[in-house]
Write a structure and sequence with these properties.
47% helix, Deoxyribodipyrimidine photo-lyase, 6-stranded parallel β-sheet, 6 strands, globular, 3 domains
């Protein structure tokens, strides 16, 4: 076997363009593209919806690599050492990861490979700037987003020019070494994921198609329109960013080449929030288990699993909350405004621990990752370093009237309320009996009654906070 071959280990970077590890490998000669399935680690890092996406992302990547993606399962250290002996490869390249488990694993694996005479080179492919490059003047990490973004990203002129597909990419895979993709068991047993197929196009091509559509049809008006879930001002790029089918450098570059506008800058700020979440996780490895504001460890959470189930099923009796939860179940996605509203309802009106919400989102969101999911839930729970204060409680009725005034989004996902007049759509319990009858609604039967009183639950949450402060 040709000794100049290099093993390119794909992880959260399932693309050919702007892939620095792949570019480096191609410059050395023949490339053995490798993906390693680690069952237990993947289960912790990726929920059922995400595994559906991963299955199709790997299939698309394999096609792009001329069906030469070697798919393996097991211990990365043992697999890479065996492949190095088989192929004569003396070099491994990969792009860096930033989650605590991945960082520790890489240290162990890279040391073992080095001790066996195999060189390892790593690159940044997931972030505009890695966590250690955006620090306060005293060398400590930022804990507040605004100065993090202002000093690290805002106003920068560079467009982070992305890399092209390597011009001389020669891939190969040893015969009979690769597992069939289906052997990884990524597709969920429950058929609920089948409804994703007509909605999403996983893979690098699909990611760039969505970016183009967003720039052409969704960016103008984004700054204000992004808060209205019935409007088209969302990029829907988050699942592709999660699996590295497109890089933040590519998105930043595409937008920086557009005329400056409030819409453009607001969207770039969202890319900055993603960078901030990764920085928080990198410097706070306990973030998935502990609140970043440690005083919240003593908060008096409720242990109402029945209420949790009703929230998960979109049966709380509050139409906008239920619409958001049903969008999640039906599409593997939820509009960002609804993520805040449904999250606030769970942790503040129901006072159920944010980890339960985090775990449900982890399993149902196509774009869930440890950085964004944990940072988002700590933000909405008020226990993060740069969080919505706990006393900021989203009222789902007033939020609905403000951000879904025509009820378009709510009626889309709560069709049993579609015949209600706008006046009662977000508060069906206030509708007179004849209005409910004409709309085909039987309270508690065709649509649930509210599971909690908004004002009473708000006061209870604030009282629990006061006890924590005392």
């Amino acid at each position: 076997m040709d000794e100049t071959c290099t093993i390119c280990w794909f992880r959260n970077d399932l693309r050919l363009q702007d892939n620095p590890a792949l570019t480096a490998a191609a410059a050395e000669g023949r490339v053995l593209p490798l993906y390693i399935h680690q069952h237990e680690q993947l289960a912790r890092a990726t929920g059922a919806a995400g595994r559906w996406w991963l299955h199709h992302a790997l299939s698309n990547l394999n096609d792009a690599l001329g069906r030469n993606l070697l798919i393996s399962s097991g211990d990365p250290e043992a697999i890479i050492l065996r492949l190095a002996r088989l192929t004569g490869a003396r070099s491994v390249v990969c792009n860096r990861v930033y989650d605590p488990e991945g960082v520790e694993q890489d240290k162990r694996i890279f040391e073992k490979l080095s001790n066996n005479g195999i060189s390892v080179r790593t690159f940044n492919a997931s972030l505009l700037q890695e966590p250690w490059l955006v620090l306060k003047p005293d060398g400590t990490p930022y804990r507040i987003f605004t100065p993090f973004y202002r000093n690290g990203y805002a106003g920068r002129k560079q467009s982070y020019t992305p890399l092209p597909v390597p011009p001389r990419l020669q891939t190969f895979s040893p015969e009979h070494e690769s597992l069939p993709l289906e052997r990884l068991g990524l597709l969920p047993d429950h058929p609920w994921h089948r409804k994703f197929t007509p909605i999403w196009q996983p893979g690098e091509e699909g990611a760039h198609k969505r970016l183009k559509e967003f720039v052409q049809h969704g960016l103008q008006g984004y700054s204000k329109g992004r808060d209205f879930p019935a409007e088209p001002h969302v990029s829907r790029l988050s699942p592709s960013l999660r699996f590295g089918e497109i890089s933040p450098r590519q998105i930043w570059h595409a937008l920086k080449n557009l005329p400056e506008s409030e819409d453009r800058e607001r969207f770039l700020t969202e890319i900055g929030w993603r960078e901030f979440a990764y920085s928080l996780l990198f410097y706070n490895p306990s973030m998935p288990e502990r609140p970043l504001q440690h005083k919240y460890s003593a908060f008096a959470w409720n242990d109402d699993m029945h209420a949790l189930k009703l929230w998960q099923q979109g049966r709380t009796g509050y139409p906008l909350v239920d619409a958001g939860m049903r969008e999640l179940w039906q599409t593997g996605y939820m509009h960002n405004r609804l993520r805040m509203i449904t999250g606030s309802f769970l942790v503040k009106n129901l006072r159920i621990h944010w980890k339960h919400g985090r775990d449900w989102f982890h399993d149902c969101l196509l774009d869930a990752d440890a950085a964004n999911n944990n940072a988002g839930w700590q933000w909405v729970a008020g226990c993060g370093t740069d969080a919505a204060p706990y006393f900021r409680i989203f009222n789902p009725v007033t939020q609905a009237k403000r951000f879904d005034p025509a009820g378009t989004y709510t009626r889309r996902y709560i069709p049993e309320l579609s015949r209600l007049p706008d006046r009662y759509l977000f508060e069906p319990w206030k509708a007179p009996p004849d209005i409910l009858r004409d709309a085909g609604i039987t309270p508690g039967v065709t649509y649930p009654e509210p599971i909690v009183d908004l004002q009473a639950s708000r006061q209870a949450a604030l009282q629990a906070l006061k006890q924590l402060e005392d």
